[in-house]
Amino acid sequence: MADYPPASLSEGVKKLPEWIQLGCGDKEYNCEEKGATFLAANLPEKLPDLSEHNNIFAEAMRANPGIYEELKNKTTKLGVNIGHCIKTGIDNKGHPMIKTCGLVAGDEESFELFKPIFDPVISARHNGYAADAKHPTDLDVDKISDTKIDPTGKYVLTSRCRTGRSLRGFRLPPCCSFDERREIERLVVKGLKKLEGDLAGDYFPLAGSRSFGEKPNGMSSEKEEYLRERGNLFQEPDSTLLLSSGCGRHWPDARGIFHNNDENVFVWINEEDHTRLISMEKGDNVKEIITFVRK
Description:
Elements: H1 18-21, H2 56-63, H3 67-71, H4 82-91, H5 110-113, H6 115-125, E1 158-165, H7 178-192, E2 201-205, H8 221-229, H9 240-245, E3 256-260, E4 265-269, E5 275-282, H10 286-294
Helix pairs in contact: 2-6
């Protein structure tokens, strides 16, 4: 197994451009070619100039320049500092017409410990969202209209519903360690393997992952192509937004896809969330796909 994982790169990653490889190994993303050189491991006394940045994080910092000084010496119980959260917003200036958040949470505590920056960014992203607001959840499918989206059946090929969930007690994908990511995979797959009936299925680690004993080299190339052709495969981060966030580290280890035998329910593990749940059906039956999500 040489030194992969976790210290070196997988054979698949070695075929990618160097600027992507730099974000898929064991270290924090540091790429001069892309201007991604801010390091959470070595926080500066003062922030770089954000006057030409066009993301929500930079706007909040310009509105309240004292935030960084207030937060720079704080660290969550799991070891996340403010640098881990803002690196992607500093490395990526953004575009005035395509405004990203420029901020990620390293763990659950980040939202509270670093609330002076998270609260204004979340509020701006959602056009006003109070710090004590609670997101309403209503999965009553009977409240969904019976009106056909595409009564002709000519235009809607498939419909899908997607949501993300994370496991309490673990750092989130931008900051989780190699061992944490493997434990998340183990716990989630253990639960999914217990599903029965129309939710019963199997788990397929990404090609090259060595974390899952039943498939020690990940899914086959044939399975990979099959999922890709149907839009159900996720792949390595190929943008500096994601690479700077830290989501690409140790790629593709402990990442994979579970799907049921009918291939209409998918769970992506350790992509941008701990889990991403997807329900899909051919046609425009929205009630049916949300019914699966409720299960």
